[in-house]
Amino acid sequence: MGFRIDPHVHSFYSGDGVSSPEALIQAAKRVGLDGFALTDHNTSDGCRYLRDIGLLLEDGEPVDGFLVLPGIEVSTAEGHLLCLGVWLPNGLKGVPAKEVIEMVRAQNGVSIPAHPYDRMRAGIREDDLDELELDCIEVFNAATVLQRHNESALAYAQRRGLAMTAGSDAHHHLSIGRSHTTFPAERLCVRAILDSITKGTELHCQPFSALEGFRKTFYNWFRLRRKRTYLGAGSGGVAAGG
């Protein structure tokens, strides 16, 4: 059995994200995904919000047959690192990748360098990758414009014998699942999905359309909407501009 998961998704809790966590869930269900990892930039606010409204469970089980994996994309000193299955604190931007990987392993999560060869974005480059203890790498990112960058990531993973993922890097709900990964897990839960990564994932690789690429770049460059900050259930669950 396999489960279709998008392991690289952003909500409006990322500074360049557009859609609410609820909109992402609805869109993911419409395109037939079994779940996704919410990996906002340098913040777990979106995951905390979904946890507090009951759409993400701390025990790692799905809600109504759909799974949201807690995650975060940390802008480490070397580049962007997806951290899945963990609850990391905000404010890790600039911390060395090695230290973040150790934090992730302490929570039995999985670290995945994102778009490592994409020269238009801050991936962890090969010289730094060589120095890191890795289990997995993102080999296809739907938002990568030049496909040779994805091909280089695939070749690197093959050379090192690393597990592989493909993700949409969606910052808008209409792009979720464009690329995704089928995980060969026996059941749909966070622990089973993470444990299955090294057993041979199936990659679904489709790049963004020109419109999707423009939309992502537009919101990344201009950031017309203020970044949301989750104040917590004790403050009425308000998402405020920050």
What does this protein look like?
The protein has 242 residues and is α/β, with parallel strands linked by helices. The protein has one domain (3-241): TIM Barrel (Alpha-Beta Barrel), CATH 3.20.20.140. The chain is 27% helix and 22% strand. The chain is built from 7 helices and 11 strands. It has helices at residues 21-30, 45-52, 97-106, 126-129, 147-160, 190-196, 210-222; strands spanning 3-9, 35-38, 67-75, 80-84, 110-113, 136-141, 163-167, 180-183, 202-204, 228-230, 239-241. A 7-stranded mixed β-sheet has the order 5-4-3-2-1-8-9. The longest helix is centred in the middle third of the chain and has 14 residues, at 147-160. It starts with a strand and ends with a strand. The model has no long low-confidence stretch (mean pLDDT 91).
The arrangement of helices and strands along the chain is EHEHEEHEHEHEEHEHEE
Cα distance, first to last residue?
42 Å
Major sheet size, sense and barrel closure: 7 strands, mixed
Helix content: 25-40%
- Based on secondary structure, the structural category is alpha/beta
CATH class: Alpha Beta
Q: Radius of gyration, Cα only, in angstroms?
A: 16 Å
Q: Taking strands numbered 1, 2, ... along the chain, how are they ordered across the largest sheet?
A: 5-4-3-2-1-8-9
**Residue fraction in strands:** 15-25%
**Can you tell me the CATH topology?**
TIM Barrel
Residue ranges: pLDDT <50 for 5 or more in a row? none
Morphology: globular
- Work out the count of structural domains: 1
